[in-house]
């Protein structure tokens, strides 16, 4: 009997990566079940009296819904299994030694991007950090690779690329502005991250010019709470978004810099003295949600984003200079007594 090592056989001829993502084991593909509602009058009008007469003979019928309306069969969801197909090699860009040297010498400026798509009965949600100084990998190429890996139709390529471009344009100028290192701009940040039916919420104070990176903060939180490693990039991404949002509000003159951080003895920062609540508002929490709660929170989040964009679009008319703050004069528009969106 001869023994053939598995390493000598051809590897990676087939792949089931895209089908495994659709099994609901990750937060990238979320299956959305359509809600079917029957019209009340139509449901009440459909009666089969033959069935009722037959049911009179069944004295042992334990159905509690008898007589309350028509019987409705609940459609069972088909079982999803992994399916494999012939693996295709991803066409990644090739870089020369000179291009790699130029990339290494270029400053990396990361901005948070979010992708949200609807495909068949799935909601596809992804997030990533994008280097705005990336000269080789374009949004179009990234979208093409994403559609190939996830087995999405070619038509989604343009949607993904356009969404990425609009977000990059929104963050480019803001991300390149450097705040003074000794400004001591501390703000209160609320984080809410939902992954795989788990909701992470936290409230803390953050220095906008802190030497601690969002990645370091996220790594510590994941280790302390012993939660899934998938939360690490999600928390870091959400914190990047919150920092840029607070940074924009500070530049435009709307940030609540003097907000109450509940520090003890009226200090600018430090321990909080809360004898009644014991600081319960300032601790991280993990909550398990149902599918309906997840969809409802996602709708609320999208509504809040649209509202914030409308408030940002109202900024107009008067201008003020930020040259004394950033070393050179920059022009920003100031809102004429617009109320805080919070």
TrEMBL record:
Single GO cellular component term: nuclear chromosome
Keywords assigned: Nucleus, Transcription, Transcription regulation
Compositionally biased intervals (Basic and acidic residues): 71-85
Keyword Mitochondrion: no
Localization per Swiss-Prot or TrEMBL: Nucleus
Main location class: nucleus
UniProt cross-references to InterPro entries, sorted A to Z: SNF5
Signal peptide (UniProt feature, chain positions): none
Chain residue ranges for the region called Disordered: 56-93
UniProt keyword Transcription, yes or no: yes
A GO BP annotation: chromatin remodeling
Stated family: Belongs to the SNF5 family.
Protein's name in the database: Chromatin structure-remodeling complex subunit SFH1
